[in-house]
Structures are given as C-alpha cells and as structure tokens.
C-alpha cells in the first residue's frame, strides 16, 4: 500500500498495457531490441562530414553510419578524439569531433581498416 507507479520497479511506462498480475515472479516483457552486433571494420560504411548547424558558428567533424554497440562506438570516438587532441561525443551511431578534422579522421579510419568516405560539401 502507498506505493506509486514509479516505486514498483523498472520503468512503469513500459508496462502501460499490463493492468495487474498476481504472480510474484511475473516479468514484464518489453519490446526493446538488443544492441546490434558490431560489424567488422572492413564492413563498416562510415561517412565523414563537416557540420556547423546548431553550433553557434563553430565547426565539428561528424562521423555517421557506425553499426554496432554503444561501447564500440565510444571506444572508436575515444581513439579519434585522442589522436586529434580535441573533445567530442558519441551517441546514436554518430561521433562528433570538435573542429574541422575531416582529413585526419579519414586517415585514422582508413588506417584502422574502416571503409570511410567524405560526405557533404
């Protein structure tokens, strides 16, 4: 008694279709997909482009098209950021490197065995 929806464990929004269960071992199944397996480096088809949108006029190198787990994406982003000596981020299959490092990122990706192409203008 006295529990609200958020205290019942897990994300209550995932269970909106289930009203009530008397089984104490009942597990709410969610439709969330498992992470994708990371493709081998030679199968990855990456695009490297310069992005200036929503960055207050500053440029950023954007690497898109990565297929794989978030951990592998973050590892690749960490490598690229350290080799370029700048900051950045990695999420949703994209790597953002602060500044215009398209040529250097292309060299690093090709040296690591990735298929990479320049995209955009």
UniProtKB/TrEMBL annotation:
Keyword Protein biosynthesis found: yes
Organism superkingdom: Bacteria
SUPFAM superfamilies reported in the protein's UniProt record: eIF1-like (SSF55159)
MF (Gene Ontology): mRNA binding; translation initiation factor activity
Ranges of compositional bias, category Acidic residues: 26-38
Signal peptide as annotated in the record: none
Family the entry assigns: Belongs to the SUI1 family.
Name this polypeptide is given: Translation initiation factor
Taxon lineage: Bacteria, Pseudomonadati, Bacteroidota, Cytophagia, Cytophagales
